[in-house]
Amino acid sequence: MYAVFLTFGPNRSSASSHMAGHNAWINDGFRDGVFLMTGSLVPGRGGMVLADGLSRAALEARVADDPFVREGVVTAEIHEIQPSRLDDRLAFLAG
Questions:
Q1: What residues contact 34, with CB distance under 8 A and at least 6 apart?
Q2: pLDDT at 86 over 90
Q3: With 56 labelled, which of 18, 29, 33, 36 sits at a CA distance of 20 to 30 A?
Q4: Mean pLDDT across the chain, nearest whole number?
Q5: Phi, psi of 82 (to 5 degrees)
């Protein structure tokens, strides 16, 4: 499992120009069963994606394909997570 932090970068002002493509990228991640959650970093620092079911190399390629990443709207930082203790509501993550 991976947490991908998307922090606003030098081209943040161009976010609106690439929002449709970024949203399509998010929708593709959910459709493909790779994204478990997305959300905003508060206050207004960027976003985060929780991803599972693919290799790190495959995730890196997917992240590089995000228009926000390609256009420098955000910088991406990928952290691998190995769950060791889960609330029963998240038991499906133990896989």
A1: 51, 52, 53, 54, 59, 62
A2: no
A3: 18
A4: 94
A5: -115, 100
Could you tell me the sign of the dihedral formed by the alpha carbons of 53, 55, 61, 63, in that order? Answer: positive
- DSSP sequence for 34-74: -EEEEEEETTTTEEEEEE-SS-HHHHHHHHHTSHHHHTTSE
Residues facing residue 76 across a β-bridge = 6
- Tell me: the pLDDT tens digits for 57-71? 999 999 999 999 999
55 backbone dihedrals φ, ψ, rounded to 5°: -75, 165
Can you state the percent helix, strand and coil of the chain, rounding each to 5? 40, 30, 30
